[in-house]
From TrEMBL:
PROSITE patterns: RADICAL_SAM (PS51918)
Protein name (Swiss-Prot/TrEMBL): Probable dual-specificity RNA methyltransferase RlmN
Catalytic activity: adenosine(37) in tRNA + 2 reduced [2Fe-2S]-[ferredoxin] + 2 S-adenosyl-L-methionine = 2-methyladenosine(37) in tRNA + 5'-deoxyadenosine + L-methionine + 2 oxidized [2Fe-2S]-[ferredoxin] + S-adenosyl-L-homocysteine; adenosine(2503) in 23S rRNA + 2 reduced [2Fe-2S]-[ferredoxin] + 2 S-adenosyl-L-methionine = 2-methyladenosine(2503) in 23S rRNA + 5'-deoxyadenosine + L-methionine + 2 oxidized [2Fe-2S]-[ferredoxin] + S-adenosyl-L-homocysteine
One Gene Ontology cellular component annotation held by this UniProt entry: cytoplasm
Source organism per UniProt: Nocardioides agri
GO biological process per UniProt: rRNA base methylation; tRNA methylation
Protein residues bound to S-adenosyl-L-methionine: G186, E187, S220, S243, L244, H245, N323
Molecular function in Gene Ontology: 4 iron, 4 sulfur cluster binding; metal ion binding; rRNA (adenine(2503)-C2-)-methyltransferase activity; rRNA binding; tRNA (adenine(37)-C2)-methyltransferase activity; tRNA binding
Function (record text): Specifically methylates position 2 of adenine 2503 in 23S rRNA and position 2 of adenine 37 in tRNAs.
Family: Belongs to the radical SAM superfamily. RlmN family.
Length: 373
């Protein structure tokens, strides 16, 4: 295991940068206590601060009346520093889709999207400012990687969404975040440690964390095979989504350049391993691009590639209508081709869904807002 997972990873960020402010969401409960003591403050206050942050979703120090007034500012500065400021919020779907553009402490821009449905509310979060994976159809991929986000910067996007739901700011009455998908900017498995930390904070019971179910969390990856193998061993049953987009190496090398390092076969094997170890059904993401990857023969090949690893329901396919990025040569598939693609996958026994396209008009997908700033 360690031999495979300790490969030098070309996508790690440069060293020696100024780090984001340290926040209680970066730390586990014992570390929070230690941090306060290091600052000469009483350690037991860490639990109260955690309750404000994760339990009550309070961000205004004036509401933290159980903290002594004379120490409140110091406590808040120590464990709840400001991590990001909202620059813009765009709404669609009558206010049930809300996309926020955030400015981080160093000026880096990231975005998150809240999507509320009748039965659930999903936060789509960023894990990196920019992305180093360079997929040519993805807006974020065009700008390169600026930096990894910290655990707290990732978590704060979810907490901000939870606050607006709790405060009834989203149509449908007060609510909670039920799902988190790592499908905003960045490649989550290229920022592995911070992402695992964020998953732990999301799933730790309140007030240590947000108390979400791991099943409600989806980590989406281009297919960093060593990290996929490592994730399977973490003991946190998150849902894994693999952005495959092509069933053959020739095309996938172009659409998802990391494929030149990890082939389709190795990548699908790692997804299959994840399903086998965690008993969680893996999701294969496939952005449908007209005349590029939407041929009937590719549907058959995709069906075979998945089917030959097992027919015990380990996988399903999620087709994503391509959201064309400005100036790109690719467009979404013809609906008839999309239907035929679904039919052929289902004929091979692969459950297939077509993703609904919330927030199209606010560039809900794929880094377009941040890219336009
Ligand atoms: N880096 C991760 C997660 C971020 S992208 C990954 O690649 O999985 C989330 C999903 O959106 C991925 O499946 C990605 O391929 C897809 N995507 C990116 N650009 C898109 C576009 N223009 N239209 C449709 N889907 C896109």
């Amino acid at each position: 295991m360690s031999e495979r997972t300790n490969l030098p990873l070309v996508f790690d960020e440069p060293r020696g940068r100024k780090k984001p402010p340290q926040h209680l969401a970066d730390l586990d409960p014992a570390e929070r206590k230690a941090r306060l003591e290091e600052l000469g403050l009483p350690g037991f206050r860490a639990k109260q601060l955690s309750t404000h942050y994760f339990g009550r979703l309070v961000d205004d120090p004036a509401e933290m009346t159980d903290l002594p007034a004379g120490q409140r500012d110091e406590l808040v500065a120590g464990l709840l520093p400001e991590l990001m400021t909202p620059l813009r919020t765009l709404e669609a779907d009558r206010g049930t889709t809300r996309k926020t553009l955030w400015k981080l402490f160093d000026g880096a821009l990231v975005e998150s999207v809240l999507m509320r449905y009748p039965d659930r509310a999903t936060m789509c979060v960023s894990s990196q400012a920019g992305c180093g994976m360079a997929c040519p159809f993805c807006a974020t991929g065009q700008g390169g990687l600026q930096r990894n986000m910290s655990t707290a910067e990732i978590v704060e996007q979810v907490v901000a969404g939870a606050r607006s739901l709790a405060r009834g700011e989203v149509p449908g009455g007060p609510g909670r975040v039920s799902n988190v998908v790592f499908m905003g900017m960045g490649e989550p498995l290229a920022n592995y440690k911070a992402v695992i930390g964020a998953v732990r904070r999301l799933t730790d019971p309140t007030p240590d964390g947000l108390g979400m179910s791991a099943r409600g969390v989806t980590v989406s990856t281009v297919g960093l095979v060593p990290r996929m193998l490592q994730l399977a061993e973490e003991g946190i049953p998150v849902t894994l989504a693999l952005s495959l987009h092509a069933p053959d190496d020739e095309l996938r090398n172009e659409l998802v350049p990391i494929n030149t390092r990890f082939s389709v076969a190795e990548t699908v094997d790692a997804a299959w391993n994840y399903a086998k170890v965690t008993k969680r059904r893996v999701s294969i993401e496939y952005a449908m691009m007209r005349g590029i990857n939407d041929h009937a023969w590719r549907a058959d090949l995709l069906g075979d590639v998945l089917r030959e690893r097992g027919d015990w329901g380990w996988v399903h396919v999620n087709l994503i209508p391509l959201n064309p990025t400005p100036g790109s040569k690719w467009t979404a598939s013809d609906p008839a081709d999309e239907r035929e693609f679904v039919r052929r996958l289902e004929a091979k026994g692969i459950p297939t869904t077509v993703r609904d396209t919330r927030g199209r008009e606010i560039d809900g997908a794929c880094g377009q807002l941040a890219a336009s700033e």
